[in-house]
């Protein structure tokens, strides 16, 4: 029995070794094919993991890897925080910047090595607080060169909305954007575009490889910003025509949402009551308009962002021959029209023609001032006076000044007036009494200083708008920047100044 078993054992062992060698060969072959499919250098390769050196052929497989291996569920984070395209764009750049420093994107812990970071990564928590750290304009700039993930993570959303008729009309109406694949001058049907670009984006020069917009006769504008300067921030050397067209479609969708959200916020009457109730501000406009008869009498006046039409009513009352009130919010344009009618200042075009006794002077045009030429017939440089209440927090916050400058360049007569014609930013230092720190130090006899410290930390990263009493100021105020609206250039709103 023993002598018979030995050959069987050796034969069995030999068979096992042969099978093992075959399995290794199969694994090597599979590995070779895997390497070929992901590293071939084709158009579908090159999606680098956010946390490690792994590369993938699609966004879906990359994000699934991040979910399983690095506790990062991109789609869940995006859904919970309701991130749009640009919010997702910032998040990706923020994570890459943190990983480059071996820092946890969630809790901020800095590790000794990337491997230590891999071991440390954990499920996301307090996402809304975490967002404060990365929801900044600097993360609109690609952190990694040629990061395909930045213009590919939203392709599924684009596909879902390709049949949206309104979106496609926007894309099809784009003008004079050339998409060049490097071998042909032919234009795609979706290559020509004019759209509303996102406001509040840091000015960035268009990168090489992006669709050429330098010769566009139209501007891609959101709240007055020229997107030909800004869209470069969302393109890291686009390498193929399909990717470029996808980005343009995606931009059309998201920038449309941005403008709808911005102008929709002004459909609420509360914000208009707040502005009109600011007696110092409104009385200043009223006096400047009503107490300048030599300027206003018989003048053609354009009110940019008229809201309820209060400034237009002042202009009509001051003796203007015609007042063009421009308002992007559809609801507020209708409200301004009704107010003009109720006060006998509305200009009814059909009834006014041939009726010299018509007292109407005020015409409300719904739309952005950059698109005014599409909404009405108006000759270039035919307006005597521009009026606008364009100022936001820290003067420039709403990014509306560029719309005023656009109207100045397009419609204002040489030597025409702008009200206001100058604007100045001041800065002053304040003490802890101007903060909420004292409040948190004694809350019904309990110390909650930890909350105050967190508030201070957040304030270092994001702007806080608040009212500070003059007795809390601890320095003199100094001029930060002065603008002459009659002569300034559009790019002067982007400045650096030390005090």
Question: In a nutshell, what does this entry contain?
Answer:
Helices cover 43% and strands 10% of the residues. The chain has 499 residues and is an alpha/beta fold.
Indicate the topology.
Blueprint (H helix, E strand, L loop, with lengths): L1 H38 L7 E2 L6 E2 L2 H12 L3 H8 L3 H16 L13 H7 L6 H8 L20 H6 L4 H8 L48 E2 L2 E2 H4 L10 H25 L3 H9 L1 H12 L2 H4 L3 E5 L5 H8 L4 E6 L2 H13 L6 H4 L9 E5 L5 H4 L7 E6 L12 H11 E8 L2 E6 L9 H5 L7 H11 L18 E7 L15
Parallel strand pairs: 5-6, 5-8, 6-7, 8-9
Antiparallel strand pairs: 1-2, 3-4, 10-11
Helix pairs in contact: 8-10, 12-14
Residues in β-strands, percent? 5-15%
Give me the CATH fold name of the largest domain. Answer: Rossmann fold
Strand adjacency order, main sheet: 7-6-5-8-9
Please report the number of helical segments: 20
Described by the principal axes of the CA atoms, the overall outline is globular
Mean pLDDT rating = 74
Task: Please state the second-level CATH architecture of the largest domain.
Answer: 3-Layer(aba) Sandwich
CATH class of the largest domain: Alpha Beta
Measured between the Cα atoms of the first and last residue, the distance is 99 Å
Number of strands: 11
Taking all Cα atoms into account, the compactness measure Rg is 30 Å
Largest sheet: 5 strands, parallel
CATH superfamily grouping of the largest domain: Vaccinia Virus protein VP39
The structure class reads alpha/beta
Quickly count the domains. Answer: 5
- Percent helix range: 40-55%
Instruction: Return residue spans where pLDDT drops below 50 for at least 5 consecutive residues.
Output: 1-9, 29-44, 158-250, 255-267, 352-358
């Amino acid at each position: 029995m023993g002598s018979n078993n030995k050959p069987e054992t050796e034969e069995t062992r030999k068979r096992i070794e042969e099978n093992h060698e075959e399995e290794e060969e199969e694994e090597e072959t599979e590995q070779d094919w895997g390497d070929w499919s992901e590293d071939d250098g084709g158009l579908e390769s090159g999606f680098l993991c956010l946390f490690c050196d792994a590369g993938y052929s699609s966004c879906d497989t990359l994000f699934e890897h991040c979910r399983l291996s690095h506790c990062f569920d991109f789609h869940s984070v995006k859904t919970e925080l309701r991130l749009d395209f640009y919010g997702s764009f910032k998040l990706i750049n923020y994570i890459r910047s943190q990983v480059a420093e071996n820092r946890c994107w969630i809790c901020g812990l800095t590790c000794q090595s990337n491997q230590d970071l891999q071991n440390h990564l954990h499920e996301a928590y307090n996402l809304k607080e975490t967002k404060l750290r990365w929801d900044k304009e600097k993360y609109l700039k690609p952190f990694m060169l040629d990061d395909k993930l930045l213009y590919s993570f939203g392709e599924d959303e684009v596909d879902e909305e390709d049949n949206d008729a309104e979106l496609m009309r926007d894309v099809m109406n784009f003008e004079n954007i050339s998409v060049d694949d490097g071998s042909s001058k032919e234009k795609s049907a979706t290559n020509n575009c004019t759209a509303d670009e996102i406001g509040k984006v840091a000015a960035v020069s268009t990168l090489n490889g992006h669709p050429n917009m330098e010769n566009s006769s139209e501007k891609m504008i959101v709240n007055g910003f020229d997107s030909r300067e800004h869209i470069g921030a969302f393109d890291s050397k686009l390498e193929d025509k399909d990717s470029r067209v996808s980005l343009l479609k995606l931009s059309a969708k998201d920038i449309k949402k941005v403008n709808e959200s911005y102008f929709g916020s002004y459909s609420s009457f509360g914000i208009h009551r707040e502005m009109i109730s600011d007696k110092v501000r409104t009385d200043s406009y009223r006096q400047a308009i009503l107490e300048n008869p030599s300027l206003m009498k018989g003048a053609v006046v354009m009110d940019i962002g008229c809201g309820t039409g209060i400034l237009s009513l002042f202009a009509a009352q001051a003796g203007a021959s015609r007042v063009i009130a421009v308002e992007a919010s559809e609801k507020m344009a209708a409200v301004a029209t009704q107010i003009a009618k109720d006060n006998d200042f509305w200009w009814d075009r059909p009834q006014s023609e041939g009726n010299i006794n018509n007292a109407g002077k005020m015409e409300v045009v719904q739309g952005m001032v950059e698109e005014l030429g599409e909404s009405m017939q108006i000759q270039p440089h035919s307006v005597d006076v521009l009026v606008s209440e364009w100022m936001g927090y820290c003067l420039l916050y709403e990014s509306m000044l560029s719309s005023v400058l656009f109207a100045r360049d397009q419609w204002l007569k040489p030597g025409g007036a702008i009200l206001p014609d100058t604007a100045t930013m001041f800065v002053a230092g304040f003490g802890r009494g101007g903060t909420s720190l004292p409040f948190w130090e004694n809350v019904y006899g309990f110390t909650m200083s930890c909350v105050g410290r967190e508030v201070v930390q957040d304030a270092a990263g994001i702007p806080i708008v608040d009212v500070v009493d003059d007795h809390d100021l601890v320095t003199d105020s100094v001029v930060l920047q002065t603008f002459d609206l009659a002569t300034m250039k559009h790019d002067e709103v982007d400045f650096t100044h030390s005090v």
